[in-house]
Structures are given as C-alpha cells and as structure tokens.
C-alpha cells in the first residue's frame, strides 16, 4: 500500500506475483487495475578459462618448378 505518486516495491524472492493498482479520486470513486509480474533470479556470470598454446614454425618460400 502506498500513497506515493510513483510507488515501487522490491521483491526479495523470484516468483510470480499479482499486482493491483487502486486509484481513488477526491470524490472517493475508485478505479482498480490488476496485472502480474514474474521476478527472475539475478543473472549469474559464467566464465571458463582455457589454457592455450601457440605453435610457431618457420615456413620456407615454395616456388613451383
């Protein structure tokens, strides 16, 4: 529940949540809108280190006969 012009909420756990927005005008009339949101886990960085080798050799200039 909030009376802020731009309310926000931080979800602690991933999951599916229902949201409702209730707007009340000065005459007490209300308008309600509902929706759902899916909160996902924080992304996890994945990295792999692969050892590499470098092979060098001397190449001779080949001239066709």
From TrEMBL:
InterPro entries: Ig-like_fold, PKD_dom, PKD_dom_sf. This is PKD domain-containing protein. Residues 1-39 form the PKD domain. PROSITE patterns: PKD.
């Amino acid at each position: 529940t909030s009376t802020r012009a731009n309310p926000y909420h931080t979800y602690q756990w991933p999951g599916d949540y229902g949201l409702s927005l209730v707007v009340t005008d000065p005459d007490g009339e209300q308008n309600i809108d509902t929706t759902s949101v899916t909160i996902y886990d924080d992304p996890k960085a994945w990295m792999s280190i692969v050892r590499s080798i470098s092979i060098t050799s001397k190449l001779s200039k080949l001239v066709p006969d």
